[in-house]
Write a structure and sequence with these properties.
This protein has 4 helices and 4 strands; from the N terminus they run αβββααβα. By secondary structure, the chain is of the alpha+beta class.
């Protein structure tokens, strides 16, 4: 699952708040620092890296609407964190 490896590398640099991500295989990773996660993301399906790189907002928005991504916590805080972090895939 090359895409999961690449996605983990991308997410590692994308948040300035603690975020926990659960991948489709059930494994979890925390990004954005230590402490209690402020937002939890559950990926119910694979996210294509090429789609994410082309247009992250649309790719993630559609995945959320389709139920392929679940978010527990503030979506606004999550998006703001991604946009504020200079190394985020949202700023590329």
């Amino acid at each position: 699952m090359f895409d999961n490896f690449v996605l983990k590398q991308v997410l590692k640099k994308s948040f300035n708040i603690p975020v926990v991500v659960t991948y489709p295989d059930g494994k979890t990773e925390q990004y954005g620092g230590n402490g209690h996660p402020e937002v939890a993301i559950k990926l119910n399906d694979e996210i294509a890296i090429n789609d994410l790189r082309k247009n992250a907002s649309i790719t993630l928005g559609e995945a959320y609407m389709d139920g392929r991504i679940e978010i527990d916590g503030s979506i606004q805080k999550l998006i703001l964190s991604a946009y504020q972090n200079a190394d985020s895939f949202f700023t590329e």
